[in-house]
Amino acid sequence: MLGFNRAEARQMGLLYGNQGLLIERWAEDLKQPGTQAILIALFSILLAAGCFYFARLLDIDDEPV
């Protein structure tokens, strides 16, 4: 089956170009549990940072002058 992967990659390259090959590799990487865990952690950190940022802005507006 080693030659099958090469033929499949060549066909993807002919049909979709380099962008198709890149997207296919990214899709394969996203199926890996380690990659999924890293993405979940990064999005969680970004979401938490955004929540803290907006909470701080609301707290600044509530202070008396």
What tags apply to this protein structure?
single chain; 65 residues; mainly alpha
Any chance you could write out the topology, listing elements then pairs?
Blueprint: H1 2-30, H2 33-62
What do these coordinates show?
- With 65 residues, the chain is an all-alpha fold.
- It is 91% helix and 0% strand.
- It is elongated, with a radius of gyration of 22 Å.
- The model has no long low-confidence stretch (mean pLDDT 85).
Q: How much of the sequence is in beta strands? A: under 5%
Multimerization state = single chain
What is the H/E order? HH
**What overall form do the CA principal axes indicate?**
elongated
- Number of helix segments? 2
Instruction: Give the structural class.
Output: mainly alpha
- Biggest sheet overview: none
Strand elements, count: 0
Average residue pLDDT: 85
Binned, the helix content reads over 70%
C-alpha-based Rg, rounded: 22 Å
**Low-confidence runs:** none
Terminal CA distance: 73 Å
